[in-house]
Amino acid sequence: MLRTLNKKHQITENSEPPKPPPEILKTSAQSSSQKSRGIGTFEPKTIPRDIVDPKKTERRAEKVGINVSQPPPDYGRTVWITDATDGFRAARIIDLSATGFTLRLLDNTGDTVTRVFEDVLACEDDSRRHVEDNCQLMHLNEATLLNNIRLRYQNGKIYSYVANILISINPYQTIDGFYSLQKIKEYRGKSLGQKEPHIFAIADKSYREMIRHRKSQSIIVSGESGAGKTESQKAVLRYLCENWGSGAGEIQKRLLETNPILEAFGNAKTLRNNNSSRFGKFVQIHFADTGNVAGGYVSHYLLETSRICRQAAGERNYHIFYQLIAGSSPELFKFLALGQPNQFNYLKRGFIGFFTHPSSGTTSKIPKNRLSDPKFTQDSMVDDFSDFQRLEYALKLTGLSEQEIHFIWTTIAAILHLGNVEFEESLDDSRGGCKVFNGSEQDLIQAARLLGLETMELKMGLCARIMQTTKGGARGTLIRVPLKPHEACSGRDALSKAIYSKLFDWLVSRINDSIPFEKSTNFVGVLDVAGFEFYAKNSFEQFCINFCNEKLQNFFNQRILREEQELYEKEGLNVRKIEFIDNQDCIELFELKGNGLFDLLDEEAKFPTSNYKSFTKRAHEENRKHFRLDTPRKSKVKSHRELRDDEGLLIRHYAGSVCYETKHFVEKNDDLLHNSLQILIEQSTIRLLVSLFGSTAYPTKSKLKALSVGAKFKNQLSTLLIKLESTGTHFVRCIKPNNQMIPFEFDGSAILSQLQCAGMTSVLKLMQDGFPSRTGFGDLYACYQKKLPPKLSKLDPRMFCKCLFRALGLDQHDFQFGLTKVFFRAGKFAEFDQMMKQDPETMTSLIQKVNEWLVGARWKQSQYAVWSVIKLKNKIAWRSAQVTRLQSIARGYLTRQRFSRQIALYRKSVALLKNSKEIEKILFRLNEHSRAKYTSSAHSTIRDLEKLVSHIKLTTSANDHFEKAENAYEHYVKRVDSMIADLKKQQKSDELAEIERKRRESEEKERLEIEAKKEAERQREIKRKLEEQQQNAQKEHENYLISEIHKAAEETEKKRQNEEKEKLDKMVSNRLAEADGVALISSKMEIEPSSGSATFRDGKYDVGGCSFAYLRDTINTSMDINLLKACEEEFRRRLRIYNEWKSRNAPVQDRPPARAALSTVCEELSIMRSIATPSAPQIQRYFKCEFKENNQKGTCSWGSSIKCEDLDQVSMWFVHFSGQQIQRQLTFTSSRPPQTLIAGRDDAQMCTLALQETLLVGKRGAEISEDEFESHWKLGCLN
User: Fold this and answer.
1) 961 and 873 within one domain
2) Residues 366-380: what's their mean pLDDT?
3) Where does a domain end: 858, 885, 912?
4) Which of the ends of the chain has fewer CB neighbours closer than 10 A, N or C?
5) Could you give the count of Cα atoms lying within 13 Å of 745 in the half-sphere of its Cβ?
6) How confident is the model at residue 1256 (pLDDT cuts 50, 70, 90)?
């Protein structure tokens, strides 16, 4: 029987009931013709709406369980739906379809679209309201997070919080006053939440936590290339130096001027960022005991040396090459023999233009003979001419002499000339050697001059290499082996990369020498590494950079998500578990010993004839079934699919799938110079150049022993992570708003992808329920211990903390006590900082508040003492009353002692009278003849005894009366005993006669029982055989169900992995298509249009394509029972899925308490739905179920079907099933009154599972009788 829908369950549009689809009114002739074909649109028998009596329709609807006056669920509700362009778009629900919602877009088009339930997310009540901390949102999901960031970005607010994590969106333009000295002063000493979100707030928080905890802090700035990481790092350094570096003198200036040097030599233009860091750096600012800046230190990682020799189209080499050409003086330009960028092989393959600031006016300062392209590219951050002038100033400020600066310029120019040296085959050399191309002689001379080498020695070093035999002389014989042209080019590039890399290391070392930190106690470090990268063509550089980002993302997951939840669990906090995507398997793919990609690459390099195809093939073979690794043909990008399996790797990173071309992996991983070039450098007349390489006259490192680029990078990264783990961490997530670098242009899809990759949705949910700030009881007590008066110093730390929070008037919801720490919720940083501030004024104020609260508390204790005294007075009065009662008892005892003889005789007489009653019992057991013989005498004896008892009771204390009474008593004793003996003798005689009679009857009965037993045994054997057959059938059915469950589970897991692969593959490919215009493989899935009406197929009705209105109207008007049943099942299915969606999208502050309805589902339920058997007849069945309710709202479990933590109370659930659907349900819990729900009245709150899906049928002891259910139901209704 259908149950009546809730008032939310009927579709209405403009307050009018919806009409059935027009197909429902087609002629019966057409319907019969379709039926004759066996398949097609079914036209149910309906009642015309114009002749329907509303009252009759309503009564009929109530009879079958449908209320026609009730609206459908959430019609008109505004929600967010997924969108390929904007990430999410606002829409309004207009129908509940078979697989999701039908919605109307809230834009100018007003188009109608359909979305599955998973692609529809709840929307804030006011979608135009934005908040500073995303944890303040009512609905916590990706759509509301993206919308809040969008609204703030449109209002010029590039920063927002997720608890204590800062989200920064690059504005791609300078914002006036946003990083000014005035702004720096505003944020000093301010807690998070007291001012607008800003990078300065994170810097101030890290400094104060360093001082408070006496522990070094790290600020990890992460994001894609072009997201603004470098500028964020510079802002942090400037904030710290401006506030606490004024006493450091020159050190402060040098710290701030390290950026021009590092950016000139380590940054370059890429396709998506004009000032991209091509190396990682960890800049530490050290502080002394006084809290002032004491020095600094710069660590750098993985400089992209391959960029020196080649760049992708549209990219540039490092800035220093262009700055030197644009900004050098005419004399220096001439001395270095420089020219236009297109005259150098190391520059002309990429972008050859210069950058200039829009308002700098430097375009006229660069001589025209230095321009390859007369057009300048404007950029708000990069200006080649001005940056060169600033670079010279920074180098001098760092302490470099004029000679050392001149050495830098000559080395950079030498690299440019060295790149122009080309080679050709030497026809005169019988060994197949090469020689320098005639057109490159001049560049060879200039390179030799600038490097301090002889031209002939440089030529010989480039065209041949030295090999050392194992025998001959002290170290063996040196043999010169000529090189082929391509080998000579590789050697030339290796030399250029080695010189540049050594020069960069030396510059960083000199920077560190200029900012010593001998008096340092702790530091604040800022990490800035190259962001996650993906291009149409990705090589070894992106391979290493993305591995670094994988490690940092894993560190983020470990520190913020895993360790945070483990701490909550350890401290006993009731915080719900948050699931997140763990990328540990991807890291293992890279660095696993033996089979890891880095180890396979190093192993390939050890072979005499190493080949990238062999490496790629082995990588696929060793990790054949790895989820994160696949062949290029699985890529969504069309050009990637053209690669062979042994030419590329498709790796599914946390941020999406990236396809790497492995063509240059082997040579880029090997940065070892051959001996001739190392010996050549030692012959230079420039001592500084020689010192960069150290002593390598007789190198002993072989190809097998030398560390590769990948191995060095792994070691550096491991060292960095160890350092980060030892510090307190703060995270800044930089977001790139668009790929075109247009100011304040918001690309919702790209930003959503970055937020998903960064795991911000999981962090948002955790921080909303979690406690990002915490401190130990002892630490908080130690801050105040020295200032406490004697009467407060006796308090233990935990009690003092409670007093402090009570004194501050903090809400219990804002903090929570753990076992050893106290935790604060997000948004309560101001209160937390107020307690942790150690300035005397604040501490004195808080101690005063604690004292006042204690006085109040003690006054309450005094009131309690008075109440206790009153209670004691009442207790004394009660005891006095008890003494009076004891006196009464004593007086009674004395009286009984005086009349003891009479009382004793009275008691014996009463006992004899009771014994005489046995005479009546024996008379009752005699036969009728014997009973008539003794009845009169027995009754006479009993009457005499009764008179005797009455006489003794009324007798006075005279002795003669007592003696007569005693004699009479003795006489009656003998009389009673004699009569009892005679009666027993007669009884025995009667019993013997009765035994003989019964013996004859028992013999006859035994004969009949033997015959009955034989018949019963035969029936039991028949029943046993039937039960065995039923058990075997049941076991076979259970085994079938289990096999189907396992099979469906495997299919579900496979489907989940395929969906995850599809998601990761699309994330990068779609953004590549948008940014670079690459062609993608079409994978659009065509959705079959809904027929809008029921179809008849294979003897059944298919109503999956019908609208919600059609289902309702068909149920209310159709005369076809089979169609009613099909519509009911479809309606129940839609309602169940909809309720699951609604529970997932409920507001955080308005989640309903757990219901037993959800508790009757185990992990296999979703699988059982897919293999459910046809519905059973409408049989009334009743069940009960014990379940354990969780403290966390919205979750509960029963029995042992579901694993659940932090369970604290046991409840009972009673349910009445009418067929497969619930008719009534009753819930008893200890914390709330009984909850009674009835179908048709409380559908929105009731369980929507079918009987078969609850698994109650197979649960032992779950099914109960109707009477038991009704008794509990009445009890629940009364309460």
Assistant:
1) no
2) 86
3) 885
4) C
5) 9
6) confident
Backbone torsion region of residue 221, taken as left when φ is above 0, otherwise alpha when ψ lies between -120 and 50, otherwise beta? beta
Q: Are 372 and 340 in contact (CB under 8 A)?
A: yes
Would you give the DSSP letter of residue 192? B
Q: Please check whether residue 499 lies inside any domain of the structure.
A: no
Count Cβ atoms within 10 A of the Cβ of residue 1049 and give its class: 0-12 exposed, 13-18 middle, 19 or more buried.
middle
DSSP string, 1046-1066: HHHHHHHHHHHHHHHHHHHHH
Is 1200 among the domain residues? no
Q: How confident is the model at residue 469 (pLDDT cuts 50, 70, 90)?
A: low
Contact 1260, 1200 (CB under 8 A): no
Same domain for 585 and 719? yes
**Is 719 found in the same domain as 648?**
yes
223 is in an annotated binding site: yes
Both 910 and 972 in one domain: the answer is yes
Place of tokens 């593959």: 1065
In the prediction, which pLDDT does 124 show?
85
SS3 track for 533-600: CCCCCECHHHHHHHHHHHHHHHHHHHHHHHHHHHHHHHCCCCCCCCCCCCCHHHHHHHHCCCCCHHHH
Is 178 domain-assigned? no
Q: What is d(CA 1110, CA 98) in angstroms, rounded to the nearest whole number?
A: 12
Per-residue pLDDT at 844 exceeds 80: no
Residue 229 marked in a binding site = yes
959 and 817 in a single domain? The answer is no
Helix runs in 899-958, H state only: 900-925, 928-954
Tokens of 731: 């995270």
Co-location of 631 and 555 in the same domain:
yes
Percent of the chain with pLDDT over 70: 83
The answer as to whether 1008 is a domain residue is no
Q: Is 247 annotated as a binding residue?
A: no
Over residues 163-191, the pLDDT tens digits come to 888 999 999 888 888 899 999 999 998 88
Question: Is 225 known as a binding-site position?
Answer: yes
User: Which two three-digit tokens encode residue 968?
Assistant: 């009479």
Residues 668 and 539: beta-carbon distance below 8 Å: yes
pTM (2 d.p.): 0.70
Tell me, what CATH number does 846's domain have?
Answer: 1.20.5.4820
Average pLDDT over residues 1061-1087: 71
Mean of pLDDT values over 305-334: 92
Q: Is 144 exposed, middle or buried (0-12, 13-18, 19+ CB in 10 A)?
A: buried
**N- to C-terminal Cα distance for the chain?**
28
Residues in CB range of 937: below 8 A, 6 or more apart: 979
Residue 16 pLDDT: 38
Q: Which residues pair with 39 in a beta bridge?
A: 1097
Contact 265, 507 (CB under 8 A): yes
- Count structural domains, the chain: 5
227 is in an annotated binding site: yes
Q: Residue 62 and residue 57: Cα distance in Å, rounded?
A: 9
Task: Give Cβ neighbours of residue 119 (< 8 Å, ≥ 6 apart).
Answer: 81, 82, 100
Percent of the chain topping pLDDT 90: 24
863 with 982, same domain? Answer: no
Distance from C-alpha of 128 to C-alpha of 152, rounded to nearest angstrom: 10
pLDDT, greater one: 849 or 734: 734
What lies within 8 Å, CB to CB, of 245 at 6+ separation is 251, 252, 255, 285, 292, 293
Q: What's the domain range around 925?
A: 900-988
Q: Is 230 annotated as a binding residue?
A: yes
Q: Is 1250 annotated as a binding residue?
A: no
Tracing tokens 């000339």 back to the chain, one arrives at: 417
Residue 719 neighbours by CB under 8 Å, 6+ apart:
none
Residues 878 and 977 in one domain: no
What are the CB-based long-range contacts (under 8 Å, 24+) for 899-907?
A: 899/957, 901/962, 902/952, 902/955, 902/957, 902/962, 905/952, 905/962, 905/965, 905/966, 905/969, 906/949, 906/952, 906/953
Overall average pLDDT of the 1209-1221 stretch: 81
